[in-house]
Design a protein that fits this description.
heterodimer, A: 478 residues, alpha/beta, D-Maltodextrin-Binding Protein, domain 2, 4-stranded mixed β-sheet, 40% helix, B: 317 residues, mainly alpha, MetI-like fold, 13 helices
Chain lengths: 478, 317
């Protein structure tokens, strides 16, 4: 006769249910509590300031220089998460980290890369173990993270420091604010301009001293500089536009109406811009041939750059191309010409967009004073600026105009455009990333013939508007 | 004669000391697995159920919204349905191809040829390589301009699709990569094939069946339990398809557009990941996760119910 087993089906089920219920209770208690970094259970409003009491941070003194942040003399460790990697990371070490550590013997700043794992930033803030400084926050995430209480307000820190807000390009300075508070500073940027090969232009009968100014000029240049081989395959691409986020501005479109808080992605000028971009998908054998050709481009930062190898005659790109030319193909230097982006009637002259990495201090860092000292320290054109120029970027400060390092007339043109009225950053909404993703999807769909511009942009408008309304209505806790 | 059979075991009541000790020892041995299961699997699953009823941006405490996430996903989100369609494409087209092809490969690997162990190793090897690294290599292979695949097709005079750049070829390209890495399934099939009782095959041969008839009437029915297993596991895997698509079609840059080209590679898990980590909608993504769970459960139940029609277990009718 078989004895009843000790662990029979009934008991096993009982244990399982108990375990499940226990897990439910556990998670109900645990997840109901706020992450350690948020100050209160209310949604963070824009009035959060660095001096709000936080559970994990000892009472903050009034903003003082970092040297008095630890009167006991013990070393403070600062972790800086950078979005750069590889060689750029090494350059950061030599131009930024080493000088900082030397000037601040009581702080040990370490740099780590989070390239390719940017989600780490978000989860580390949520977990209450954020890095002390992070630059892997992009301009289009800044307001989103600020409004959701993920960043430390830097307004007072800046006011009490010796820094002067006047040194920065005014449109940049504006962009680093949301709801009147300062959330970060950038030391790198670049301008988007029309770059063309003067020799190629001359070859096909165009005047290199008169770069295209209008869209129809640009179309003509693109056609003339494109070369197909005998089987109709591309051998050289004259030009192909992409990026509705950029061209929308060039065409004069309005992306967002701040007064009515309405997304205006289906602005007729945006529809024209997308129509124009999509029209290139029908040229030269069609979008498949063009994309196939473009997929053979080498890496941008390598000698196989398509402009350097001559298979792309012109493009929209930044100042950094010049320095790649000087590095890899100096003989091309004199024929690499820059001009402001051509624009249609009703569009914007000298238009560009910018984004880039912003140096921020997450919410809930252990030594905000030391974190701020690091951010403040790198604002020096000989520190942060030295890094910027080493990776072929610019620092968004007005002193660049007189800076010997930026004396090249092409870079001066970039500076002029970048600091001008038609240099656009991101929109003052907390759903920038969502908006640009939807725009990108629409652009891809229309280029591949799966939708028409108006319908696609109407859909984008509706989707992003719904999302924006939801976030604004629910308060910043969405 | 006439004696009752001896009891061979000492009679034990349930709960006796010795048996209880055995149970405790047994539980201790498996406790790491149990604890790990509850901590790293059950807790996140239940937490996700909770978060799916909230609006949660990770940085701030969640706010209860009831079934709003589910309502918005099912009725107010076109991308949700795009991601379902793309994922179902992989399940309905990719999975059968994988199942059939792998079975055929397993048949080939079951032949008695010299060097068979080398072939088996070669077929299995891709499945144990790290998926991110192989995805990057495949990116090069599939490049329409300088990739080896289009190069070879060109030499043969065949058309050269744009693969990952072409909305109509991106998913077939990903299925191709998936097939290449499905050595594990082949191995399981192989084990099943080798388990086919030879006496049945011999009996069939004696009855005059040729090799095709033997295969169809003996081997295949005997192998259906393995097909069943691979079907379930493969289906679950394809429903959760993420890694290759993420590496190959989304890029790791801060401004990569997911689902390129034209949303053709916006899979369910990719869209979920986007919602959770790019758009600050963790609650929304949690609801997505639970919808996927129920979807997979429904499919699994359907397949299980159907199994009595086509799966033959030895020892049963």
């Amino acid at each position: 006769m078989k004895s009843a087993p000790l662990l029979n089906r009934r008991r096993f089920l009982g244990l399982g249910v108990t375990g499940f219920v226990g897990t439910v209770l556990l998670s109900a208690c645990a997840s109901g509590s706020a992450p350690a970094t948020s100050s209160t259970s209310q949604p963070a409003s824009a009035s959060a300031s660095p001096s709000a009491a936080k559970s994990t941070v000892t009472a903050q003194p009034a903003v003082t220089p970092a040297t008095s942040a630890n009167a006991s003399g013990e070393k403070v460790t600062l972790t800086y998460w950078s979005g750069w990697s590889g060689l750029d990371l090494k350059l950061q070490s030599s131009t930024m980290m080493d000088p900082f550590n030397k000037a601040n013997p009581n702080i040990e700043a370490k740099i780590e890369t989070v390239a390719g794992q940017y989600q780490k930033v978000l989860t580390s803030i949520a977990a209450g173990t954020p890095p002390d400084v992070v630059s892997a926050v992009w301009l289009n995430q800044l307001s989103a993270m600020a409004v959701r209480n993920g960043l430390t307000d830097l307004t007072d820190y800046f006011k009490q420091s010796k820094l002067n807000s006047d040194v920065y390009f005014p449109n940049y300075w504006d962009q680093w604010h949301y709801n009147g508070k300062l959330w970060g500073l950038a030391i790198t940027t670049s301008t988007n301009m029309y770059v063309y090969n003067a020799t190629t232009a001359k070859e096909v009968g165009l005047d290199p001293e008169k770069p295209p100014k209008t869209i129809s000029d640009l179309d003509m240049w693109a056609d003339k500089m494109t070369v197909l081989d005998s089987s109709g395959n591309l051998k050289r691409l004259g030009f192909r536009p992409s990026g509705l986020w950029f061209w929308g501005y060039v065409f004069g479109a309005q992306f967002y109406d701040e007064k009515t808080q309405k997304i205006t992605a289906n602005d007729p000028k945006m529809v024209s811009a997308l129509d124009w971009i999509a029209s290139y998908g029908k040229k030269w054998g069609g979008i498949k041939k063009i994309e196939g050709f473009e997929s053979g481009y080498g890496s941008f930062g390598q000698p196989s750059n398509p402009f350097l190898t001559g298979i792309e005659a012109s493009m929209i790109t930044g100042e950094y191309l010049i320095l790649y030319v000087k590095d890899y193909k100096p003989e091309m230097d004199s024929e690499t010409r820059y001009a402001p982006a051509p624009f249609p009637e009703g569009g914007r002259d000298n238009a560009t967009t910018f984004g880039g990495s912003i140096f921020t201090i997450p919410k809930g860092v252990k030594h905000p004073d030391a974190s701020w000292e690091f951010v403040r320290f790198i604002q020096d054109p000989n520190i942060g600026g030295a890094f910027a120029i080493s990776i072929y970027n610019l620092q968004p400060v007005k002193s660049d105009f007189k800076d010997k390092r930026y004396s090249d007339s092409r870079i001066q043109l970039g500076l002029k455009i970048e600091s001008g009225d038609h240099a656009f950053g991101v929109l003052p909404i907390p759903v920038n990333e969502f908006y640009s993703q939807k725009l990108g999807e629409a652009e891809s769909a229309v280029i591949h013939g799966q939708n028409n511009s108006k319908a696609a942009l109407d859909q984008v408008t509706k989707t992003v508007q719904d999302e924006l309304d939801r976030v604004l209505k629910g308060g910043a806790s969405q | 004669m006439g004696t009752t059979s001896e009891r061979l075991t000492v009679p034990r009541r349930p709960g006796g000391a010795a048996q209880r000790r055995n149970l405790v020892v047994g539980l201790l041995f498996i406790s790491p697995a149990i604890i790990g299961f509850f901590a790293f699997t059950m807790y996140p699953v239940v937490a996700a159920l909770y978060y799916s009823l909230t609006s949660y941006n990770i940085l701030q405490p969640p706010t209860f919204v009831g079934l709003d996430n589910y309502r918005r996903l099912l009725f107010n989100d076109s991308d949700f349905w795009v991601s379902i369609t793309n994922t179902l494409y992989m399940v309905v087209i990719g999975l059968p191809i994988t199942l059939v092809l792998d079975l055929l490969i397993a048949f080939l690997l079951n032949l008695k040829l010299r060097g068979m162990s080398i072939y088996r190793t070669l077929i299995y090897l891709p499945s144990i390589l790290p998926s991110v690294a192989t995805a990057v290599v495949w990116l090069f292979l599939l490049n329409p301009n300088y990739g080896l695949i289009d190069g070879a097709l060109g030499v043969l005079g065949l058309p050269q699709p744009g693969w990952l750049l072409d909305p109509s070829w991106s998913k077939p390209a990903l299925i191709m990569v998936s097939l290449w890495a499905s050595g594990g399934m082949v191995l399981i099939y192989l084990a099943g094939l080798q388990d086919v009782p030879t006496e049945l095959l011999e009996a069939a041969e004696l009855d005059g069946a040729d090799s095709i008839q033997r295969t169809w009437h003996v081997t295949v029915p005997m192998v259906t339990p393995v097909v069943f297993f691979n079907l379930i596991i493969g289906m679950i895997g394809y429903f959760q398809y993420f890694t290759e698509a993420y590496v190959m079609t989304r890029g790791t840059g801060s401004n990569a557009i997911a689902g390129d080209p034209a949303g053709s590679t916006l899979f369910y898990a990719i869209y979920l990941f986007q919602n959770a980590f790019d758009f600050f909608k963790m609650g929304y993504a949690s609801a997505q996760a639970w919808i996927l769970f129920w979807l997979v459960v429904v499919f699994t139940v359907i397949i299980f119910r159907s199994s009595s029609l086509w799966v033959y277990y030895r020892g049963r009718n």
